[in-house]
């Protein structure tokens, strides 16, 4: 990275707020604590391993998605930013990129730790990014999209949390219907890396990128980010 670009990224890291740096490691810390409690309560090795895998595939992506929409909403200088020659999409993209990089670094480190200490129950370790990256992209893209369309953090987080919980509670229907099975978020931890696993991961990546593309298009009309008070 050119030296003159480093101060920009440092600034955007600060503007992204504490959630960008704290949310991903906090999610995995909670996962580790839950696994430790389960182990001390008598859970077997495989059960604990599945719980740790669920943290990577379910808890971390949801946390990153929730943090992403707060980054979109917390900027108190949007009116000023929208008047500058730099596209707001670029500015917002850098801030969300900080969150994505922190989340990815935490996920890779956590996965490597599980593999080294014998707790990894997912696919081959080289394929481990496909455990957490597709659901993270999908949930983050959808949450930011809803946040921009509804101009409400509460609406975006409520809808995505309800969808996340619904897929957890009604895994059977989601995984048996041809229409919903490719977009089921928790295939690895619930069904394992079977023959349809890669198809599911690619479907999540494709639809997640579609969400991102729509967000970029909407940001060409940046007034959509303004609330009624700001307008």
Task: Describe the fold and architecture.
By secondary structure, the chain is mainly alpha-helical. The protein has one domain (3-225). Helix content is 74%, strand content 0%. It has 10 helices and no strands. Helix 2 (18-40) runs antiparallel to helix 3 (45-74), helix 2 (18-40) runs parallel beside helix 5 and helix 3 (45-74) runs antiparallel to helix 5 (88-116). It comes from Plantactinospora solaniradicis. Keywords: Membrane, Transmembrane, Transmembrane helix.
The rounded Rg comes to 19 Å
Largest sheet: none
Contiguous helical run count: 10
Low-confidence stretches: 76-81, 226-231
Structural class computed from helices and strand pairing: mainly alpha
Overall structural domain count = 1
Helix content: over 70%
Query: What is the global morphology?
Result: globular
Q: Tell me the fraction of residues in β-strands, as a range.
A: under 5%
Question: In total, how many beta strands?
Answer: 0
Order of helices and strands: HHHHHHHHHH
Distance between the termini: 37 Å
Q: Compute the average pLDDT.
A: 84
Question: What is this structure's SSE topology?
Answer:
Layout (H helix, E strand, L loop, with lengths): L5 H11 L1 H23 L4 H30 L3 H5 L5 H29 L12 H22 L2 H17 L1 H6 L10 H5 L5 H22 L13
